């Protein structure tokens, strides 16, 4: 049996009805006699969705225990055993509960498809992995359940389930999506009109791109060369000249007039690398194209009109924008020009726009072939052989007189040798000197410049032509070899840019240092300014050369747009280096933008974290602090009441309640102050050698007696720590473990040393914490499970980890073998070791520890 087919209902936003659409499709197929079953559907309690389940066979769900909660998951084995023709699997991005065969539901769907079962599924646009950051920036909510885009792209059918923002908000207001008590909050946050419109645009663009990819694949498979104008695609041809910006802006306006218009800029260079384009101007034009929402392409082709038309047809373009020729009138004798040739050969399916500009008919410089230099020593040897070689050879041949034919072959050999060493110019010099010597010394009549035999004239002319031709070929081969080596070096540099820089692995200073070393410069700097009249500022600089305040003060300036430039000092590089320099300059601008965006993101994250802390702090103050205050107030009011005669037992009970409330207030305020110190960076630990067997027992004052067993050997090395911070951290962790330990089960506090580190393990036998929550329990204001609100504000473990990290240590949570949680606090061992022998107040082995009371700490909590 072949692979099953996957049909996905893609929702433009939560609540648009993708599950409803999937169930409706199942009913249509069932009416046609197709065997359809419901493998898993989540109705979210919506009556109209639940009504559509009627009449469809449902495979019983599989129940799993997730902590104290029972969750229902799709029974994959039961569906495979039932083997229907079509299976309905809702929420493709869902994360399966621990204990399931696969981590994600889309992996379950892959197994069903591999078994030959067709699948109907649903997924929201917000759950696509590539759009996670975009969705978070729009809605402020990070979707933790995602599905790889490729899974959705591989689907045989993708149906967009869409709804206008206004209609969706009406559905929300009528209670068709969320419960009535959640409607107001949803409408004012996630379901704002702007959010819904942006999500809808994301969905439409994603589906449009997928349709476009299918169209391109169809055209390729069926060899369709004709242009299908399904959407306006404007190709603008660039020459690297100053008119390029005018053409780009004109093409952008044309693209904006059509629905879904697309702008593609293409620069075509010759395969021999000869070009008259300005690298700086090309970089500026690339930036302009990208700013206008288009894409820049670099194509190699010797026949520029043909290459431009091939690119346009390959991109399914509908229009081509070209500039008026910069040729002068006499230059049209050389040919009709690119614009006229493209307009003649484009055919009826392409429109060509010729745009006038200020540079039209002003002339343009033709590219000049400049080969790579062969080196001074090699040129010197070439000129020596080309000029002195024929003279020495003439002296030698005069002595032996082998005959005119051999004389000409020997002179030709010297010419080839001069070409191999020095290139074309020494070879031509050798041919000229050799022909003169042949005529004067070896061609009758001898020692005159006349030639009696016409055949000798032909022989000398052929000698000169063969010598020049061979020299030209040898010179071209040598220069091509040198050029290939240079291009290889350039490709390695560009590979470095494409790899390290684009992946964000290189900083601005590292990139500038690479530029300086590659081109042998004294210094490299990236300069920028806010506007045309603003002064230049230095964004980054490396090297020891003179400081450059303006681009024009540098030895070489590579502009990046209008307000940024790469400035280098030390020497003036050859023109062929500017292409790679332009690539470096463009990437330096990208690195600078990335660094600033990262800084802005860090500031925004810090601001958001501060807002979250303040919000949680207000919530804590409003409840957890008010509760003990209310108890204290009630007890004091009762004691002061003159209407009631309190017995000694009642009075003692009320005083005990006041004391308990005050202790709770002291604990909460202490943790709040500790957390505020951590977040403001005012915790400055006093690190010194500290004995664990002196600090740990003092941390047991907040727990009942006989609830902790200590195993802290006195032979342990000292640790680098602040005794006060270490005691507070240990007290929080130990009290947290005691709260969650079963009655009668002691918490074990054990310490050991290993490889320059000392570990303190706090082991309890409580219910433990799931793997996905082990990091969240250290976040501020988090509660785990059903911890009562009166138990604290959820700061104990956050404070403990903060103090531990401030001392250069770590605090992590792991499972206790057999059940429970083990907190491991790791610190660096001090260089100084404790004195040998027992110290006062310490002893080995497990022991019961109680000391003076310290502030009680909060328990482990996550949402």
Automatic annotation (TrEMBL):
InterPro entries linked: HATPase_C_sf, HATPase_dom, His_kinase_dom, HisK_dim/P_dom, HisK_dim/P_sf, Histidine_kinase_KdpD, KdpD_sf, KdpD_TM
Keywords: ATP-binding, Kinase, Membrane, Nucleotide-binding, Phosphoprotein, Transferase, Transmembrane, Transmembrane helix, Two-component regulatory system
Compartments it resides in: Cell membrane; Membrane
EC annotation from Swiss-Prot or TrEMBL: 2.7.13.3
Catalytic activity: ATP + protein L-histidine = ADP + protein N-phospho-L-histidine
Keyword Transcription attributed: no
Name of the protein described by the UniProt record: histidine kinase
């Amino acid at each position: 049996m072949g692979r099953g087919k996957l049909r996905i209902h893609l929702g433009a936003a939560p609540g648009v009805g993708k599950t409803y659409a999937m169930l409706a499709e199942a009913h249509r197929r069932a009416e046609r006699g197709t065997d359809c079953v419901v493998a898993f559907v989540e109705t979210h309690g919506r009556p109209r969705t639940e009504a559509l389940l009627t009449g469809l066979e449902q495979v019983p769900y599989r129940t799993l225990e997730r902590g104290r909660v029972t969750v229902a998951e799709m029974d994959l084995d039961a569906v495979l055993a039932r083997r229907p023709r079509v299976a309905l699997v809702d929420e493709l991005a869902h994360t399966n509960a621990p204990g399931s065969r696969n981590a994600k539901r889309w992996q379950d769907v892959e197994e069903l498809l591999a078994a030959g079962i067709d699948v109907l599924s649903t997924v929201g646009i917000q759950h696509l992995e590539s759009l996670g950051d975009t969705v978070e920036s729009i809605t402020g909510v990070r979707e933790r359940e995602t599905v790889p885009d490729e899974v959705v792209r591989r689907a045989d059918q993708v149906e967009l389930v869409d709804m206008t923002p206004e209609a969706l908000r009406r559905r929300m207001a009528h209670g068709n999506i969320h419960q009535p008590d959640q409607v107001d909050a949803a409408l004012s946050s996630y379901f704002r009109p702007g959010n819904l419109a942006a999500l809808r645009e994301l969905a439409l663009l994603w589906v449009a791109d997928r349709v476009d990819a299918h169209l391109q694949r169809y055209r390729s498979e069926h060899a369709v060369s004709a242009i299908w104008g399904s959407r306006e695609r404007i190709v603008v041809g660039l020459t690297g000249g100053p008119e390029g910006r005018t053409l780009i802006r004109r093409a952008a306006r044309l693209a904006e007039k059509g629905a879904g218009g697309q702008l593609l800029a293409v620069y075509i260079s010759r395969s021999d690398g000869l070009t008259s384009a300005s690298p700086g101007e090309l970089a500026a034009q690339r930036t302009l194209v990208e700013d206008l929402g288009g894409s820049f392409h670099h194509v190699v082709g010797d026949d520029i009109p043909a290459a431009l038309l091939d690119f346009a047809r390959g991109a399914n373009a509908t229009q081509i924008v070209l500039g008026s020729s910069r040729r002068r009138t006499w230059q049209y004798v050389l040919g009709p020009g690119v614009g006229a040739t493209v307009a003649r050969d484009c055919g009826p399916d392409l429109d060509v726009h010729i745009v006038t500009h200020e540079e039209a008919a002003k002339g343009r410089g033709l590219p000049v072939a400049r080969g790579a230099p062969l080196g001074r020593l090699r040129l010197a040897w070439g000129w020596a052989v080309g000029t002195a070689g024929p003279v020495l050879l003439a002296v030698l041949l005069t002595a032996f007189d082998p005959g005119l034919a051999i004389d000409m072959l020997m002179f030709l050999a010297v010419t080839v040798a001069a070409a191999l060493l020095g290139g074309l110019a020494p070879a031509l010099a050798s041919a000229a000197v050799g022909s003169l010597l042949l005529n004067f010394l070896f061609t009758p009549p001898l020692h005159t410049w006349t030639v009696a035999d016409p055949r000798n004239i032909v022989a000398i002319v052929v000698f000169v032509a063969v010598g020049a031709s061979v020299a030209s070929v040898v010179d071209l081969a040598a220069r091509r070899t040198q050029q290939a080596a240079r291009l290889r070096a350039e490709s390695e540099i560009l590979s470095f840019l494409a790899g390290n820089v684009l992946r964000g692995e290189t900083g601005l200073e590292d990139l500038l240092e690479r530029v300086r070393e590659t081109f042998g410069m004294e210094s490299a700097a990236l300069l920028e300014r806010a506007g045309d009249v603003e002064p230049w500022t230095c964004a980054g600089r490396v090297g020891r050369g003179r400081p450059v305040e303006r681009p024009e003060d540098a030895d070489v300036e590579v502009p990046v747009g209008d307000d940024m430039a790469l400035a280098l000092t030390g020497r003036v590089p050859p023109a062929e280096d500017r292409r790679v320099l332009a690539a470096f300059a463009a990437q330096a601008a990208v690195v600078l933008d990335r660094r600033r965006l990262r800084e802005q993101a860090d500031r925004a994250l810090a601001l958001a974290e501060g807002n979250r802390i303040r919000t949680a702090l207000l919530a804590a103050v409003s409840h957890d602090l008010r509760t003990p205050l209310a108890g204290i107030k009630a007890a004091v009011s009762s004691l002061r009441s003159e209407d009631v005669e309190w017995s000694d037992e009642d009075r003692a009970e009320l005083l005990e309640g006041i004391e308990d409330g005050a202790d709770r207030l002291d604990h909460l305020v202490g943790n709040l102050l500790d957390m505020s110190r951590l977040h403001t960076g005012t915790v400055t630990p006093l690190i010194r050698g500290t004995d664990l067997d002196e600090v740990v027992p003092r941390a047991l004052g907040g727990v009942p007696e006989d609830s902790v067993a200590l195993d802290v050997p006195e032979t342990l090395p000292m640790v680098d720590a602040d005794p006060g911070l270490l005691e507070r951290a240990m007290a929080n962790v130990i009290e947290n473990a005691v709260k969650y330990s079963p009655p009668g089960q002691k918490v074990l506090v054990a310490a050991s040393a290993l490889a320059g580190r000392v570990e303190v393990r706090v082991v309890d036998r409580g219910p433990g914490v799931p793997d996905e929550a082990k990091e969240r329990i250290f976040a501020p204001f988090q509660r785990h499970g059903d911890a009562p609100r009166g138990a604290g504000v959820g700061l104990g473990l956050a404070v403990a980890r903060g103090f531990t990290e401030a001392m250069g240590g770590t605090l992590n949570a792991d499972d206790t073998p057999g059940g429970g949680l083990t907190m491991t606090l790791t610190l660096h061992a001090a260089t100084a070791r404790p004195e040998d022998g027992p110290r006062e107040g310490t002893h080995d082995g497990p022991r019961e520890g109680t000391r003076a009371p310290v502030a009680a700490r909060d328990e482990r909590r996550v949402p």
